[in-house]
Write a structure and sequence with these properties.
The chain has about 240 residues and is of the alpha+beta class. Helix content is about 60%, strand content about 15%.
Length: about 240
């Protein structure tokens, strides 16, 4: 079991962040330090990061301890889904025991596994009931994060949310909520498109997701766009068939 950090260790980390809220840039710097501290204090973590929205509402990683974290997050944003976006949208921690067997996020797991990530723990950043983003840690071994790691990451997330919440403009929570609705709608669309391919091509779920990903890459488009077009085409076809009858 990972050693439980003392109150003194946590107090030291938070004291280093105190007084950095003079501007949003200062808050982002503070959260970056928080990500590095989370990596250091959760023994199994090989990388950590924070996912937020920038000033114009775009999903970005504002703090990452290494390029692997940045690449894994970029794949989530391209797909419009992943454990961090789900933690953010549902305001609940999300844990992946093994990326080679996980199937909840339509291909993101395969990309993560290919980069050496085997387990993931992501927890939401919530300030006054509003989801601001997610704090996550990655590991290179399966089953790296248990309840103790989840509790500790939650403590870091509370501190990060307080820092960010104090620096957010008033209109940001509304923009965040709209972005979360879009992310959830995208996930549903990709799921529907996967079902269409399964029925039309007689494929299993994993094979259908692979076809969807490969089609998007071949066309140089986002998976969400290809999925939406596929669902729309299938719906139009059903409507025409009903009219013929």
């Amino acid at each position: 079991m990972p050693p439980d950090p003392s109150r003194g260790e946590l107090a030291t980390v938070f004291a280093q962040l105190h007084g950095m809220l003079l501007s949003r840039d200062d808050a982002t710097t503070a959260v970056s330090r928080l990500a590095h501290a989370a990596r250091q204090m959760i023994p199994a973590a090989a990388g950590a990061g924070v996912s937020l929205l920038n000033a114009d509402g775009t999903r970005v990683t504002t703090a990452a301890t290494d390029p692997v974290v940045e690449a894994a997050d970029a794949a989530q944003y391209e797909l419009g889904m992943g454990p961090c976006l789900s933690a953010w949208a549902m305001q609940e921690p999300q844990r992946i025991e093994d990326t080679t067997t996980e199937t909840r996020w339509a291909g993101w797991e395969a990309a993560a596994a290919a980069s050496g990530i085997r387990s993931v723990l992501s927890t939401p950043l919530v300030h006054r009931g509003q989801a601001l983003g997610a704090l996550k840690v990655y590991a290179t071994t399966p089953g790296a994060f248990g309840p103790d790691a989840e509790r500790l990451l939650g403590l870091f997330a509370e501190a990060a949310a307080t820092l960010l919440g104090a620096a957010q403009p008033v209109e940001t929570p509304t923009r965040l909520n709209e972005a979360l609705k879009t992310a959830l709608a995208t996930r549903e669309t990709v799921g529907l498109a996967t079902g269409v391919l399964m029925a039309r091509e007689h494929l299993g779920a994993e094979a259908a997701r692979t076809v969807l990903l490969e089609t998007a890459r071949a066309q140089g488009r986002r998976v969400a766009e290809v999925a939406a077009e596929l669902v729309e085409t299938a719906t139009d076809r059903e409507d025409h068939q009903e009219e013929d009858h």
